[in-house]
TrEMBL record, chain B:
GO annotations of cellular component type: apical plasma membrane; endoplasmic reticulum; Golgi apparatus; transport vesicle membrane
Ranges that cross the membrane: 44-70, 288-310
Protein's name according to its UniProt entry: Cell cycle control protein
Name of encoding gene: TMEM30A
Membrane disposition: Multi-pass membrane protein
Record key words, sorted: Cell membrane, Cytoplasmic vesicle, Disulfide bond, Glycoprotein, Golgi apparatus, Lipid transport, Membrane, Transmembrane, Transmembrane helix, Transport
Amino acid sequence: MDCSLVRTLVHRYCAGEENWVDSRTIYVGHREPPPGAEAYIPQRYPDNRIVSSKYTFWNFIPKNLFEQFRRIANFYFLIIFLVQLIIDTPTSPVTSGLPLFFVITVTAIKQGYEDWLRHKADNAMNQCPVHFIQHGKLVRKQSRKLRVGDIVMVKEDETFPCDLIFLSSNRGDGTCHVTTASLDGESSHKTHYAVQDTKGFHTEEDIDGLHATIECEQPQPDLYKFVGRINVYSDLNDPVVRPLGSENLLLRGATLKNTEKIFGVAIYTGMETKMALNYQSKSQKRSAVEKSMNVFLIVYLCILISKALINTVLKYVWQSEPFRDEPWYNQKTESERQRNLFLKAFTDFLAFMVLFNYIIPVSMYVTVEMQKFLGSYFITWDEDMFDEETGEGPLVNTSDLNEELGQVEYIFTDKTGTLTENNMEFKECCIEGHVYVPHVICNGQVLPDASGIDMIDSSPSVSGREREELFFRALCLCHTVQVKDDDNPDGPRKSPDGGKSCVYISSSPDEVALVEGVQRLGFTYLRLKDNYMEILNRDNGVERFELLEILSFDSVRRRMSVIVKSAEGDIYLFCKGADSSIFPRVIEGKVDQIRARVERNAVEGLRTLCVAYKRLIPEEYEGICQLLQAAKVALQDREKKLAEAYEQIEKDLILLGATAVEDRLQEKAADTIEALQKAGIKVWVLTGDKMETAAATCYACKLFRRNTQLLELTTKRIEEQSLHDVLFELSKTVLRHSGSLTRDTFSGLSADMQDYGLIIDGAALSLIMKPREDGSSGNYRELFLEICRSCSAVLCCRMAPLQKAQIVKLIKFSKEHPITLAIGDGANDVSMILEAHVGIGVIGKEGRQAARNSDYAIPKFKHLKKMLLVHGHFYYIRISELVQYFFYKNVCFIFPQFLYQFFCGFSQQTLYDTAYLTLYNISFTSLPILLYSLMEQHVSIDVLKRDPALYRDIAKNALLRWRVFIYWTLLGLFDALVFFFGAYFMFENTTVTSNGQIMTTNTHMIFGNWTFGTLVFTVMVFTVTLKLALDTHYWTWINHFVIWGSLLFYVVFSLLWGGVIWPFLNYQRMYYVFIQMLSSGPAWLAIVLLVTVSLLPDVLKKVLCRQLWPTATERVQQNGCAQPWDQDSEFTPLASLQSPGYQSTCPSAAWSGSRPQQVTLAVWKGKVSAEPPPAPGCSHRCCSSSPRHGCPGSLVGMLV
Amino acid sequence: MAMNYNAKDEVDGGPPCAPGGTAKTRRPDNTAFKQQRLPAWQPILTAGTVLPIFFIIGLIFIPIGIGIFVTSNNIREIEGNVFMYYGLSNFYQNHRRYVKSRDDSQLNGDSSALLNPSKECEPYRRNEDKPIAPCGAIANSMFNDTLELFLIGNDSYPMPIALKKRGIAWWTDKNVKFRNPPGGDNLEERFKGTTKPVNWLKPVYMLDSDPDNNGFINEDFIVWMRTAALPTFRKLYRLIERKSDLHPTLPAGRYYLNITYNYPVHYFDGRKRMILSTISWMGGKNPFLGIAYIAVGSISFLLGVVLLVINHKYRNSSNTADITI
């Protein structure tokens, strides 16, 4: 049977592909197989050491440094530092070396510490004892000494030391229970099965006698996929070949539960275990702010280079006269004179670069990193986002994307478990057209028996009764639900009402709901024991069915089947699945009635499943067995072959009925979606569910409104017309209205913007995405995007996980490059979570995979509102101010330096002292902006929550646009000019002098260049700090402390720095400079004047902009101050927001209405109690801009 | 149903602690800081709040400016102490090579630095194998013209005006930063082993006869060593003290300035000047500050008016906007 395989293996080896083999052969217990059984090429396997650490003691410093200097910014600063070391530059290497050293050291310490923790964890893991079987005896060894092929014994509650093939357990049926909580977060117990032929080996001696080889694929990271084969040799017979699947594989990291001990053979060890392979890091996501920041950096780099170039050129022009180059009082050394001109020019260029390099500050990176890291704590600390029910709070997996939360334009949300509770409730079932509704609760009590059934239709006939019972049995049998075992797993529980004491566990909540629902209808699933499923029927009799096969569920087939053998010996195949996957395979049954019912239920938002069966005669079953066996044993393409086999088996079914399960909407889901839409975010629902159900959910959560015109792009429609026609027709419909040429006939009201909702299904999507033969696929995509853009809501149903990611990608790379956010809770959402700019996981019932792979995880969908509208908004304004401010303050810092070159003969003389150069960014101006970027709230949290439209004010990276950036840069330039020339005129016109009256002596002194620099610097520190103070809208005591503290620190430091002769310095240029300056009256006057002049334009700009072109945010801010005159004309009364009917008539007002309605009304009422409050009618008129029925003029007058 | 689920969660919730227990521990603290609800002052720059500030700035700055301007102009009156400056133009004392060409340790009296000056002093570090004291380009190019002022009285006989050499440098410079090298009373002895700067006529210990104004602590030297910020600068040369309250320090009359010309400036296209000035509470004569204050004050006042107008107009426009409702 496996001869061919052996041949191919031999072939492959002989062909020289020894380096990489796609399967591995393992000798269980290191026993050689019988001679001639197989060609064996020994492979080297790693030992079982887990290495999650990145560094060793020896390579830490070089490797860490290398890693750090791979970052472009660090590398740039290193180059600057090296230039300073090598050539004679104006500033000492300390000025850039110290900050760089600080940054590098802090990062290295942090990474070193993290790595040390990893080492510790690794050691603990690698040294924990493991029980081996060696020569029939149990031996304890350290985990790291484990080798592939070793037989290992694991006891209850121990974790598996490596990936094992499950050989036997102490349970008779050869099963064991496992939780994979630490792998994928699912805490449910999963059953794994021992290899059939080895499950009898219960003792060490037995297992030592096992003679077998295992062939399996090379390790790959997919936790749920495994294919392999085991050949068990016995002395007499040919080897027995058994397929191995993931149900035989025990993964490292999983824990053994409810099983005393098991034996297994190691197949993947150490870094090759699936757990270790899954540790690979995700790709790094970068936020829009970071991208803008990098663009600005490049701009500044260009400015820097051009500044240096200009100065170098001017220097040589200026120096062309020899008396300037080398006047008698300032001669060069011999070596300087002899240097090559070009070399000199180049070093001069580098020196200018060094002089101006502070314009790109190291500290910005540090501050941004710190802001992101510290700022992200506010999410985890947020009490509003803590879910009492589950005890879960939000998680932040990456802090790099905080500000991206404020930029979201598209939200892609999963439906089940995200919009809905994923808390399934069995609603009804329809058997042969008769509808059964279990009365869940009757007077607060669950009714135990069939009396709970309320039959809506006429009572069934005898054959109907048979069918009915068959249906219930089908539901009881066709599932993968486990019964949660109590301490004595062998004691069958026989409680007549079953329900409450039985706890079912399944990876699919639908199944649990069905089994529990059926329980209320009289059939209780008891357990699976020794491959027999036991059910308790209505007469309290236990029925036993032998479970022959499970054709497990997958999202492509969208159905599952079981093959069982009843006590009477009849073999049944029960199949359960989505209607679309069942109906085509049905040949008998009341299809039409059931279909009608299913569709009705789907429209109501219920999740429907159809149940069908067929009776198999033993010969048929034999055929099926062989088919399955063949597919299961295949090493290659096993998935595909299995799918084909399933396809063949699940056909010619007889339809039994359908079930309906309700998945309730999550609390406040509709509210959240409404708020997000008002915030200008487009919400798309991507679901695997069927169209009707999904659409119903969309209506329920107000994604679609009553007046939303639905456009369908579904397989059904495409079958009728060609894709081309459908697309063009839709785009015509949509564009006609966006052109606003015609009146909408649908609502009968004037509509500049009709609400469109698009529904598309997976098949249609793949048609659109599929490249056409003529290679013009882009055409359809563009057209599709065009349609999507005009729709306020899009629903994509019947989506495969990868298609979800595809949609996200499509939007992400469309020409506007919008920022996308994907939110989901299940493993099927992981691909889109990883694809979107921001991935959010809902910590849900379907395991924690989504939460683990996401950037942020929240307990409930409703938390998204606060996450985006409040946290996102805050993070965005904070970081954008941070970035702009950093550039601004460094322009202020460096531009005077540039100007000074014109007055010092382009000699690269620094304006400021080295200490000031070094500390300006590190300490004088660092803390205020850091704290600002952590604390700032330009409007209060409540207002942001109440008025989602404020989110639009920051959309499209509004605060980091070129206009804003140029404004900040110009402001910096202006301020720098003021500082420099202010000081210049003070020094040039006459001496700034001190009459020294403050000092003890009565002398009259002259100030030199260092005083000049100190004056500029002092003005600058005050201006820059006060500018931030002007921008601060939220003054907590911390802000006060930090802002005034920084200024105080600057003064104290300067006093100290100039007050002492520092023995370690080889110059004392700053000695008493600051104090002398402060003792001069004009210096004080100049400082006050220059600070005022520097700040005036910004204040003026702020006030004028606020007065003339206020943004929504500014209006809200002002409203808080109850400034009555700036009532905006575009307000919308409450009524128009609540009723969708009004919405359509006045969409622009509703969308741009900038103030929360409650506030508006309150102001109105408060101001004019005598006048009637504005009628909703007012809002209509506001849209039509007709003054005729205006609100009374007197009222307006009073308001104004 | 839901109860069932909860029950399951409790049993199955993996870790031994029940959800209730975890909730207590994992629940974030309800502190004002963590919930971002610290009490805060929330000022907003609106026209209303800024308008008064503009007017206040105007009202404060204009008088200050006028005050400064007047004081500054009054300085012409040669009363009180008069300061005598020399000025140089086109002299780049702020050139980098020049600024750093000094050794502060040597000037501080460090004996090892005296004999082994810093490398920064090159090429004015050593001369004929002897260390230069004081080393460096700054010291080497010290201004060495001599200025003498005479009052030509009625009898045409020039009366020398007493020029005070002391008290022209910063007190801290003279007493702390600059020190002669240690040693005995004989200053020449203390500078033994060094040579004078190349351009100097006399060695450093012969700058003045007064032992408290000789060597490194010579005040002319200290003043020169404080490098100027701009290529056109002036430095304090002498002090003319007022003798009595009755007579002006420099009475009206003809004066005669005697310059001993040593210092070459033509080479670099420079100019020399001599300035006499008094100072007031706000320093020397300085029209800039006064004018700037007046200008800024008036601009601020003007802006206040403009804002007021805009504010008023804006009210009107908002009025009309409201009417269209």
